[in-house]
Request: fold
Amino acid sequence: MKRLNYQKGVRVLLALLFFVPILLFFLDFTNKMPVDVHKFLHIQLLPAVLGGMFGIVAVLLIMTYLFGRIYCSAICPAGILQDIINRLFCIGKKKKKGVRRFSYHKPMNWLRYSILALTVVTTALGFSGLCLLLDPYSNFGRIAANLFRPAVMWGNNVLADWLMKMDNYSLFHVTISTVSIAGLISAIVALVVFIVMVIFRGRLFCNTLCPVGALLSLVSRYSQMRISFDKEACNHCGNCERTCKAEAINAKEMTVDSSRCVDCFNCVSSCSKGGLQYRFKPAFRKENADTGGSNAITCQARERVSASNSRRTFLATGVTVAATLPVVSAIADGVGQAKGHGQGNGHGKKKGRKKWPPITPPGSLNLERFKDKCTGCHICVVKCPSQVLRPAGLEYGFDYLLKPRMAYISSYCNYECTICSEVCPAEALKPISVEEKKSLQVGIATFFINRCIVKTEGTDCGACSEHCPTQAVHMVPYEGTLTIPEVNPDLCVGCGGCESICPVRPMRAIIVKANTVHQTIVLPEEEEVKNVEVDDFGF
Reply:
């Protein structure tokens, strides 16, 4: 019989306090939630490392040293999502006595530490592909942004239709426009991997593929608070091993692998006799006779040898990875350069002509920095009020896969909006002020006169000029009474107002070309308005 365990209750409460706001922040398509919720994202470990927020990293590592891998069970949204999947899978299943749900497996240290070493070295050399593919928070973000959020929006539209039939217009239709094919595929793959691994091996992703889990495991094996056996109270029922999602408990030998334990406390709550406890027990501490004596010391010696072997494996694989990295980097560069590019900001291709690079969001500073730091979590995509950010596929190469780009298809970047730079947890987008945004040039509009309807149809237009916030695009005399657009590159900020409104299809007459390094323009000083006192009627 399971007994109540306050430790598990506290862990579940903490998990809900972190998970629910993060999930709702991704799902909030009405932008009603306060932007300050993004602070929950900044305590995710890998984004904090990439963003240089080493104070947060230090706190998380110290917390792991003191209490174990609480991060994996209460702070990481991907870890909590796996717990939810496990709970849903268990609904309706009959519990048969003697049938194991989980069982102990030896750790795959070579694999997990090789992945960690490869991730560290490649990231240090400016290739963030492994971070993008394996970061638990970013995978959760893509699942929430490309699967859960569209599902909620679709449900909203269905409910809105139903209410309108009853003359209730409290809800309205919303357009699902920020999901790309690449984003959808990545979200489906990540969710399927989570589901399959959870069903068959519990927290296998966290203890084998996840670089964050591997990093924390190096610290948690020395944690001061840990789950351990009370050998006198244990009745060898095996419930602890069957309920361990991390497959870290060997009930036969009465050992717990602290490097894989995620402190879910399922084992403690399943123990009816108190044979398993979460308590202060520093690593390698000698036990006295009344708590197991020589047997306990033997188990600890085994843990010490295992830890030593793990460190040697980690160092050996790190050296191997470092030696092969130049080849990986060369292949990645070759893939990016091999992609053919057509003219315009993703508006077609022409053989033999190099495609313009992607327009990166405000705050990215430059293209190369953004590619190195962005992990494709898509929080900026879903929080953009103009829905101008779209996840990229392979059109810009593998090193830009799933990263957001400015796509001026039906909207443009708001002249005074800085939300994307505020919510980015990895600081791939540096926070900028509204004043900085107004003078930030992410690209320059390029005008193609042979496409403009003023020339092709001999009619007035001027839509691009009307939608330019800085008047970088202005109208000049053309033929007779007709005027035609002209671009002043010194005033253009690349917001896309001109491109998004241009009526020419399929190739627009004015297209924003990216600045691979963002520039700052000098805005003209506003003319002072003189107050003139007018006598009588001013004549």
